[in-house]
Specification:
- There is one protein chain.
- The chain has 317 residues and is an alpha/beta fold.
- The chain has a domain of 216 residues: Metallo-beta-lactamase, Chain A (4-Layer Sandwich).
- The strands form two sheets. Strands 1-2-3-4-5-6-7 form a seven-stranded mixed beta sheet. Strands 8-9-10-11-12-13 form a six-stranded mixed beta sheet, with no helix packed on it.
- Strand 12 and strand 13 form a beta hairpin.
- The longest helix has 22 residues.
- It is globular and about 60 Å long.
Amino acid sequence: MSLSRTPFHSFSAAVTLVAGVALASAMAMAQTPPAPPPQGVPENAVTRVSEHVYAIVGNPNIAIVIGDRATLVVDTGLGARSGAIVVREVDKLTRNPKLFLTTTHFHPEHATGEQAFPAHTILIRPTVQQQEMDRRGAEFIDMFRGNSARNKELLQDVKLRTPDIVFDREMRLDLGGIHARLSWFGPAHTQGDETIFVEEDSVLIPGDIVQNKVVPNLFNEDATAKGWLNVLDKLEPLRPRFVVPDHGPLGDGSLIGKERAFILDLQGRAAELKRQGTPVEDAGRLLITEFKAKYPDWTGVDGGIPRGVRRVYAESQ
C-alpha cells in the first residue's frame, strides 16, 4: 500500500549532511554552478520533505501532498511520459481514492503531463492561469518542441484537459488531516502563477517564484520584477519551514529572502544603468559579468540576466 517511509528526523539529518558535503564540494570547485538537468521526471527519485509532503526531484520538481482521504499533486512534468511517471510514484505512496492535480503555471514542463493522470483526477487551476493556457498554451508547446529532440519526443500528441475547478484568488483543500492553501497573488513569472502552502507541515510549493540559486526568469512581457516582489511580499509572512521550488534543490524559508535580495539587486543595478543612458543590450552584458562575480553559484545567469534587464528597462519607462 505504501513505501517504507524514512523517519522525518533522519531525513532532516541526512539533508544537513548532504548540504554540508555539497557546500564543501562547491567551494572546492570555485563555486561553479551546476549545469541544469534535462527536462523530465526521473523514476524512483522521491524524497520525503515533511510528514505529509514528498517531492520527485527532477526538472521540474513535482510535489505530492498526502492526507488521510485525498492526495494533491503539484505539476506534471513535460508530456504524457513524465505524467505517467508521476502517477506511478503516487501509487507507490498512497491508494487514496481521491486525487487532486494543480499546476503552478501554464508552461509545458509543468502542465503537459496531465493527460496521463486517471480520469477521476480533479484538476484545479486559478482562473487567470487557465485563461493564459487557453491563450498561449499551444504557442509555448510548439516553442518547447523546437528546443530539443528530447522535448519534441516528450511533447508528442499532447492533449490538454479542461479544469474541473477554477478559482479566482484562493482555494483551501482538505485532504484529511492536512490542508493545502492554493493561491493566486498576481503576475510574476507568468500572469497565472499559483503557490501552494501546506499548512500543518509549513511547506511552501511556490512554482518558479521562489527557487534555490536559480536566476529569476523574467521571460517576456507577462513577467515583471515589480510583480515578482509583490508576490514575495505575500509569501514572506507564511514563514515556511520547507520550500519545494519548481527548479533547483529543495530548501527552507530563507529562500524567499534570497530571491528578494537578488531581484532587488538586479532591479537596482538595471535602473541605475538606464539612468546613465546605457543601452539595454550593453547593460545586459555588463550585468552578466557583474552577477557572475557576485553570485557565482547561481544558475541561469547568461540568459536570465539580460531578460531581467530588459524587463526592468521596460517597467521603468
